[in-house]
Amino acid sequence: MPVIEARGLRKAFKDVHALDGFDMTVERGRIVGLIGPNGSGKTTALKAMLGLSRLDAGELHVLDRTPADERAALMQQVAYIPDTGILPRWMRVRDLLNYAEAVHPRFDREVAERQLQRTDVNLNKKVRVLSKGMHVQLHLAVVLAIGADLLVLDEPTLGLDILYRQQFYDAILNDYFTAERSIVVTTHEVREIEHILTDVVFIHRGKACLSISMDQLADEYVKVISAEHTELPGTPLYRHRTIAGQESIYQGVTPQQFEGLGEVTTPNLAELFVAVVEGNAGRQT
Amino acid sequence: MKQFAGLLKREWLEHGGAFTWSPGVVLLVVLLAGLVTLLANQEADVSLTIQERQQLSEYTPPAQARSDTETAGTAEQNGMGDVSDMGAMEILAAMVLDVAGSTDAELKQKMSLLQMGVAQLFHLVFIVIATFALLASLYDERKDASVLFWKSMPVGDVSTVMSKLVFVLWVAPVVTIVAILIAQFLGLALVSVFVEEGMGGRVWAASGFWWQPFALVVGYVQFGLWMLPFAAWVMLVSAAAPKLPALWAFGVPWVLVLLEQIFFSSEVLAEVITHQFKSWSFLRGAGAATADSLNPFGMQLWGGMVIAALFLAGAVYFRRRNNEI
What we know:
The complex is a heterodimer of chains A (285) and B (325). Chain A is an alpha/beta fold and 285 residues long. Chain A has two domains: 4-205, P-loop containing nucleotide triphosphate hydrolases (Rossmann fold), CATH 3.40.50; 216-284, no CATH class. Chain A is 31% helix and 28% strand. By secondary structure, chain B is mostly helical. Chain B has one domain (2-46, 86-321). Chain B contains 16 helices and no strands. The longest helix of chain B has 43 residues, at 2-44. Chain B starts with a helix and ends with a helix. At the A-B interface, α2, β5 and α3 of A face α1 and α8 of B.
């Protein structure tokens, strides 16, 4: 049974289709990156998965539950960190931990306090006075102490400096992730999470335009960097000129056929996203 | 149960400050006013003649929430030109302190009025703070986006809404009740010090002070039940208003009352609303004197609860759907 099973999700805000038949599946023990530009429907999809908003149509099951109707029960197993600091600013750190302990059956206070000892977050401080980085560290400590089966991260490191960002993903990998747990993450900084993902879903205009595991991706897509005007076999998905010459992204080809014609690598996610979304336009050039 | 207690504690952390410092300030003001009045009276050495005493026993003291001008008017009508020359506080002090000349029944009434008068300002301040807390209850969390955090916890919207309602109506008053009891106790203590020698015992006996905690708790429980529709309405607005919840909370009923007057020339809504607020009398300890229509078995209380339930269902509905503003 997948952790998340989304079929044909639709959601419109007035006349804007935020989700327009979105599909996504997340299996246990996977780290799935949901990649797309602003306004592509990422946050709308995540909010639906968390039971924070209702869909107009489609089937959505998260850990065997219907999020919109069973949010409270679902949140025993799901944790969430969004892009903006959402912890109550008037609360003291200690009171926040007390609260989580009182209302969340899985919250392990020791884990949270141990995690906070590694940071500069003081238990007596109010959330209001914490820096953006410390705010995220505190939220991370709460999330780690819950030990949820599914962790949803929506641009969690937005606005953080590089040191905090690195620490954040290290903690997620070392202190949270296990074969039993799953993560869905969105971010602008695709490069930052590329190496930790096991799967990726590209979302564009409310639709999933590619769902693939990183292993498959390496088998399926090839990037060839060649000198300009080099004749390459087949039709690339996307091609564009660079200072070094031209870069072509191919789908479903063997790297061997490009031997001697240029440098053959696997495209990174940003390149692949452009190739998939702009694929048709690319073919025409 | 552990979760609901945690939710109430959360409410206490957010609003407990306002519910504590406000009666604290009132306590200081009331005590200071009491002390000044008694000291002033001592210096003025008001001694009452039998005639004056008789007039005063028929006189309604300012403790019953009348303004000074009204008080003077009443005194005039009662033909009490002489005593109305005295300041209101002086009259009050003179009356209260004249223990020897009062019968047990008179003294009992005086002490009852004194305690009620002391409590009055506390009740008023509580209602103001409670209204603000309810207006903020489901609005502030949307404004600062913390609603996303609260909703990331396994707490249902019904539990959340109920915890906020129960906290304001039946948990927060505890602080006010304690402050009132302290004020009443110190007030009676002051009076018993300032009265004629050997009369302190009569003051305490007549005060019925030891029943006060019970009376106040019962009063607030009843008041809360009658105020349910109002509180639920304010919470509904707090959950639904895109901005300025106070404006919506008071503006909508005001416009409806106005429309009813214009189109139907009737005042049914206005009467229903003002009747609900008559439950204020429960706080004044005047339970026995309240109108039949405030009967706990009457239609209006139960009708109010049905309306409150509808408003609360609405608050839950919007809490479920609305996130950040």
